[in-house]
Amino acid sequence: MLTEREIISTLEMLENEHLDVRTVTLGISLIDCVGHNLETLKNNIYRKITQTAKKLVQTCDEIGEKFGIPVVNKRIAVSPVAIIGAAFSSSELVRVAHTMNRAAADVGVDFIGGFTALVEKGIARGDRALIESIPHALAETDRVCASVNVASTKAGINMDAVYLMGKTIKEAASLSADRDGIACAKLCVFANIPQDIPFMAGAYLGIGESDAVINVGVSGPGVVKNAIDRALKADSALDLGQISEIIKTTAYKVTKVGELIGREVAESLNIKFGVVDLSLAPTPNVGDSVGEIFQSLGLKSIGVPGTTAALALLNDAVKKGGAFASSNVGGLSGAFIPVSEDLNISEAVAAGYLSLEKLEAITSVCSVGLDMVAIPGDTSAETIAAIIADEMAIGVINRKTTATRLIPVPGKKAGDSAYFGGLLGQSVIMSVNNGLGDNRFIRQGGLIPAPIHSLNN
Amino acid sequence: MKKVIISVLGHDRPGILAATTQVLYEQGCNLENVSQTILQSEFAGVFIASMPDDLTVEKLNQQLENALGALNLYVFAKPVRVDIPIYDAPGSEPFVITTRGPDRKGLVAGITSVIARFGVNVTNLSAVFKGGDDPNQNIMIYEVDIPWRIDQKTFQKELREKATHLGLDISIQHRKIFEAINRI
To answer: Domain tally for chain A?
Structure first.
């Protein structure tokens, strides 16, 4: 028998605190789609995706209804296209992106990830073709997401790839200049990319994964914020250790929901269940924000002194709760701070509380990195690459995943607003230090070696 | 072995369970199940016990009335029929139906009429109607077993229509979600 309190508190989380499953992402291996000519490859890819994902959306909706928990997004992640399409040119890979886009549309998913290259140590021919195809692929499609892993703790930072990504981002922005450079909102540059991220734009299916797998991304910033607010209302003298305990317990509940839904979907589709990614993923809605949690913790805004410590507390408590709730935790698993996708964070930028430098600092204690950051359109490729290099260094040295999703908004300058729409949100454009200036460090290229794993200071 | 089921009702106070079970003990009965609840100020208890062959239900009733009547409690014992087959529940899944909304007459009757019409069995119901604006003060929670064989969509649709008609917000969710969130 359930208690009245158990039922009422669950309903509160669902109805008033935006508890939902942010994404169920079906990973599909395309390794067996490889063909010697482009048409064969495209046909194989289309057939594999549409057959495997035929019932994904319907099943997620049915299971969401059964449990009263909406599955907000249903998505697909595929094997790295740089490997699948290694034999093809960049213009041919753009056509592969169109095929992926069509397959995604036909099965009703809003994003498909896996237009991906893994180049942390070196750039193979297929990788270069894929990276060169990214601007057109993303500007000409709506649903395809790309990611490029340019660094890892084991390999170091491939600075040639970093510079190449700076140029690629500039070109992608200019090709979608009429939509504030939205192509860049579908492109992540990673260090230590996990193979099982369910969240976009970084989702792809690692080559060490099975043929098909269901990964789940939970949500819950609103639930965490409300739990903190409720506890402090009952006892305003709670110390940070006690608040951390409350966040941990809440993360436990949120993760359990994600795993339950993920396993049900996987069982129903007869596909292996992979991981729960227990990231706190915000949306541009009020009450569904990671930024608001900082205010609940007592800070004036995200970005003011104290932010890094508060985020460290939050991120660690979320991980502890999630790890206890599920033995299958993976992906990014931490708090996201995507600027344009979180109303409160974009407001903190507008009010001058949050700068690019502070944002970079706090990414050292959370996932994922400089996410959905709009910067002036005239920022040079070298400077963009340098921002990427800094973020990669944080990931490589700290043995964690970091990423950038930078959008140089064409024709706009710091302080202007950029609009991406929907879940991608909107943001004030952040100013960039030495945005146009020379950067010989980046042009030097080569590999920044992998870090030493002793003498930890 | 004969079995008896006993219900005890009355204003709640200390000593009701002690008085009831003392009689059962003195009459040689062995308790098998007990469930009690308190609604507002009223106690309600149900007891199932096995009884010795030489004890009649009439005599037990008399003994219980003598002991509990003094406490202003109403008691009734009746034999448990073992010759009637137990209700054979069809294959089903456990759901929780929750309604919230302003109090008025006929809410439980309205909702249960739909539940019963579809052959859905209520395994637990708790309802509180205290009036006022707080939705949590006017709530019905039905734990039900929804048979696989019935048309789930039509059942849910009719239940939602009935709730709307009664001015209630309703949610219908699989029981597992509450267990997942609240229990280790």
So the answer is: 2
Backbone angles phi, psi at A332, to 5 degrees: -95, -40
pLDDT grade for B1, boundaries at 50, 70 and 90? confident
Judged against a pLDDT cut of 70, whether residue A166 lies above it is answered with yes
Sign of the alpha-carbon torsion through A301, A307, A313, A314: positive
In a domain, residue A125? The reply is: yes
Q: A162-165 — which CB contacts under 8 Å span 24+ positions?
A: A162/A189, A162/A385, A162/A388, A162/A389, A162/A392, A162/A442, A163/A381, A163/A382, A163/A385, A163/A442, A163/A443, A163/A445, A164/A123, A164/A128, A164/A131, A165/A131, A165/A189, A165/A384, A165/A385, A165/A388
pLDDT 10s digits, A358-412: 999 999 998 789 999 999 999 999 999 999 999 999 999 999 999 999 999 999 9
Helix (H) or strand (E) holding A418: strand A417-419
* Contact assignment for A257 to B175 by CB distance below 8 Å: no
Spacing of C-alpha B57 from chain mean position: 24
The domain in which residue A298 lies consists of 218-448
For residue A112, give both structure tokens: 């498909």
Split at pLDDT 50, 70, 90, the class of B135 is: low
Find tokens 């992402």 and name the residue. Answer: A25
Pairs of CB atoms within 8 A across A/B: 59
B177 CB within 8 Å of a chain A CB: yes
Partners of residue B140 on adjacent β-strands:
B99, B127
**Mutation target among A4, A7, A67, A260 for the B interface, most CBs of B within 10 A:** A7
Query: Of A51, A216, A200, which is closest to residue A115 (Cα–Cα)?
Result: A200
Task: Count CB-CB contacts under 10 A for residue A457.
Answer: 2
Residues B108 and B36 occupy one common structural domain: no
Q: Domain of A78: which CATH number? A: 3.20.70.20
A14 within a domain of the structure (yes/no):
no
Contact across the interface for A260 and B180, Cβ inside 8 Å: yes
Which residues contact residue A408 at a Cβ distance below 8 angstroms, ignoring those fewer than 6 apart? A169, A170, A173, A181, A184, A375, A376, A377, A378, A379, A384
Cis (ω within 30 of 0) for the bond into A87? no
Q: Are A280 and A350 in contact (CB under 8 A)?
A: no
In angstroms, the CA B62 to CA B65 distance is 5
Its domain, for residue B14, covers 2-79
Residue A46 forms part of a structural domain:
yes
Please give the pLDDT value at position B136. 66
Distance (Å, whole) CA B171 – CA B146: 14
CATH for B176: 3.30.70.260
- Residue type at B109? A
What is the C-alpha radius of gyration for chain B, rounded to an integer number of angstroms?
20
Cβ–Cβ < 8 Å for A164, A134: no
User: What single-letter DSSP state applies at residue B41?
Assistant: T
Kindly list the residues from chain A whose CB atom is less than 8 angstroms away from the CB atom of residue B96. Answer: 2, 7
- Phi/psi at A194 (5° precision): -75, 155
Give this complex's ipTM. 0.78
